[in-house]
């Protein structure tokens, strides 16, 4: 349970307990900011989001190209091994021909070819104009998705990074406690040798020392796992060496103040709400796009080319080719679609209404989240002050108890109890500190203030 609390506190001291290292890290050394920047460059989810953003930009360019002039050329060659024949009354060519006689005349040549170029241009198309706006909005949506991915990666890396720092602090505390207990143990062994204390006093201290040693070994193994998790979140190889340059220092609780009770005034600060706003734009553009289908469209087409035909292939290169050209304006006027577009608009409006309802639901959820975070934070501020007071008292108790024991007016059990109480006070203090940092991060997230800008 304690380890879970420590892990949940990964974002905790981003702005309060951690100091930023120099901008450029030495090889294998990372501050929290540098670790996040490294992860944003290498994380697969962010790479995919950037690919989506690139695709969205290409989609915008693709839609723009539809409204620009379109040109293409064609070259055609046709061979007719058997030229088609058309049956014509013989009297057409010979008035003396018998009644009912027909002539099977060839209609065409064995070889024919043509070469032409064409140009088309949209003059007016309502759907194209709306589609161009929609593609720009789609690009905006991909940007919001990239922002959300960066926040998720920054949060995951911060949790893993801070977990390593916390474990370092815990290791340091256990080593100090063990060192102090070793000193007491050695003194007690000497006093037992001289006959001033019983062997039972030595045994009690040895049991406590063994327990501390085991706990220290466990946390050091846990630190190995925490470091591998950090490397994984950063996109590093788990065998690659890493050094953390940020340090976790003892925090003065006086810097924490009760949270103000203001609710979020600008919901767009939350990336989830901003994404819904973009989706609302897209849905409104979809309605306009369908409605634009009722408007006429006008296009311009121009063609120019040459053609020729012969029964002898070699004559293609000697006989003349004849040019041809055409210019056309095409006006398409929608008249009746059996209410197809009308029903599409109804469906699209229903989808828009659902988005608006989801916005209202998200606003209520954000208000609740902010209020809960404010209450939780204020409660934990008071709790941390109490835990710090208990820590100060237990530190003074262990100091006085050790002095009494050395002067022979205190017992071995009092020292052991004081050590246990001090260790428990340390654990309680850091647990309360982690919980407070978690509450602070939760409040920042609820207000849309938690964002690590990578500069990428």
Quick structural gist:
The chain has 456 residues and is α+β, with helices and mostly antiparallel strands. The chain contains eight helices and eight strands.
Features:
OMP_efflux, TolC family protein, 4-stranded antiparallel β-sheet, Outer membrane efflux proteins (OEP), 59% helix, 456 residues, disordered N terminus, transmembrane, two-stranded parallel sheet, transmembrane beta strand
SS-derived structural category: alpha+beta
H/E element string?
HEHHEEEEHHEHEEHH
* Estimated share of beta-strand residues: 5-15%
The total beta strand count reads 8
The CATH class label is Mainly Alpha
Family: Belongs to the outer membrane factor (OMF) (TC 1.B.17) family.
Subcellular location: Cell outer membrane
Keywords: Cell outer membrane, Membrane, Signal, Transmembrane, Transmembrane beta strand, Transport
GO molecular function: efflux transmembrane transporter activity; porin activity
């Amino acid at each position: 349970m304690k380890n879970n609390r420590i892990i949940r506190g990964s974002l905790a001291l981003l702005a309060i307990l951690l100091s930023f290292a120099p901008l450029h890290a030495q090889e294998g050394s990372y501050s929290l900011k540098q670790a996040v920047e490294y992860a944003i460059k290498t994380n697969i989810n962010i790479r995919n989001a950037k690919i989506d953003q690139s695709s969205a930009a290409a989609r915008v360019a693709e839609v723009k190209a539809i409204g620009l002039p379109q040109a293409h050329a064609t070259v055609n060659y046709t061979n007719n091994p058997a030229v088609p024949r058309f049956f014509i009354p013989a009297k057409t060519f010979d008035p003396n021909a018998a009644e009912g006689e027909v002539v099977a005349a060839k209609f065409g040549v064995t070889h024919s070819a043509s070469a032409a170029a064409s140009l088309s241009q949209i003059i007016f198309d309502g759907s194209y104009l709306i589609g161009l706006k929609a593609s720009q909005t789609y690009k905006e949506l991909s940007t919001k998705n990239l922002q959300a991915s960066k926040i998720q990666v920054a949060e995951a890396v911060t949790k893993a990074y801070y977990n390593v720092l916390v474990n370092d602090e815990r290791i340091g505390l256990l080593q100090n406690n063990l060192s102090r207990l070793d000193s007491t143990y050695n003194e007690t062994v000497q006093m037992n040798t001289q006959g001033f204390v019983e062997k039972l006093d030595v045994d009690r201290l040895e049991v406590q020392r063994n327990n501390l040693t085991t706990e220290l070994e466990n946390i050091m193994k846990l630190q190995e796992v925490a470091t591998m998790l950090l490397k994984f979140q950063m996109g590093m190889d788990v065998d690659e060496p890493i050094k953390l340059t940020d340090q976790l220092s003892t925090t003065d609780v006086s810097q924490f103040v009760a949270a103000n009770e203001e609710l979020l005034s600008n919901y767009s600060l939350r990336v989830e709400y901003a994404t819904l706003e973009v989706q609302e734009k897209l849905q409104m553009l979809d309605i306009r796009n369908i409605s634009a289908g009722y408007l006429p469209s006008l296009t311009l087409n121009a063609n120019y080319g040459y053609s020729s035909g012969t029964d002898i292939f070699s004559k293609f290169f000697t006989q003349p080719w004849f040019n041809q050209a055409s210019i056309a304006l095409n006006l398409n006027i929608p008249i009746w679609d059996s209410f197809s577009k009308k029903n599409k608009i109804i469906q699209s409006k229903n989808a828009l209404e659902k988005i608006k309802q989801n916005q209202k639901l998200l606003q209520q959820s954000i208000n609740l989240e902010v209020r809960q975070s404010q209450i939780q934070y204020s409660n934990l501020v008071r709790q941390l002050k109490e835990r710090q007071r208990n820590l100060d008292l237990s530190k003074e108790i262990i100091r006085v108890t050790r002095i009494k024991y050395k002067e022979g007016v205190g017992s071995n059990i009092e020292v052991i109890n004081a050590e246990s109480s001090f260790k428990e006070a340390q654990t309680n203090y850091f647990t309360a500190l982690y919980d407070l940092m978690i509450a602070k991060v939760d409040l920042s997230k609820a207000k849309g203030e938690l964002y690590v800008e990578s500069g990428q």
